[in-house]
Design brief:
about 130 residues; mainly beta; two-stranded antiparallel ribbon; elongated
Length: about 130
C-alpha cells in the first residue's frame, strides 16, 4: 500500500537541481492531515513549483545558453511543463472523482524530467 500525498509534499525532478513542494488547493475537500492530492494536481506554478536550475537539453533556455557557452552545459531556471496527470495514482480511492495521488506515482515534464514524490507530506493515511 502506498501513502497518500498531501499539501506540502516534497518533490524532486530528475533534471532539477533542488527539491520543490507540492501545493494542493483545498478545493478537493478531502483531508489527510492536510489537503489530499489527486492525479490532476499537476498544474505548473499552481501545484508544481520550480526545481531550482534545470539541466535538460530539451529545455530551450538550457539549449540556447549551452550553445552560447560553446557546448558547455549551462543550467537555466526551471520552468516545469507538466501537461499529463500523475501516473498511476490509486484508482480504487477517488478524491474529487479522480484517483488519489500516492507516493509511488510519477509525473512527466515535457522537457524530459521525471518528477517523483520524496516525502508525501504525511505518514498516517494509506491508499491501496
Amino acid at each position: 500500500m502506498g501513502i497518500a500525498v498531501c499539501n506540502g509534499a516534497n518533490l524532486q525532478c530528475s533534471f532539477g537541481a533542488a527539491p520543490s513542494t507540492l501545493i494542493v488547493l483545498p478545493m478537493n475537500r478531502v483531508m489527510a492531515t492536510m489537503p489530499a492530492a489527486n492525479i490532476m494536481d499537476n498544474k505548473p506554478f499552481v501545484n508544481i513549483l520550480p526545481f531550482g536550475m534545470c539541466t535538460s537539453m530539451s529545455n530551450p533556455a538550457v539549449a540556447s545558453a549551452t550553445a552560447a557557452a560553446l557546448g558547455v552545459l549551462t543550467p537555466m531556471p526551471c520552468t516545469p511543463v507538466t501537461v499529463a496527470p500523475w501516473a498511476p495514482g490509486a484508482p480504487t480511492v477517488l478524491i474529487a472523482n479522480m484517483p488519489a495521488l500516492n507516493n509511488s506515482s510519477k509525473l512527466m515534464c515535457s522537457f524530459g524530467g521525471v518528477i517523483q514524490v520524496v516525502n508525501p507530506g504525511q505518514t498516517k493515511t494509506m491508499v491501496p
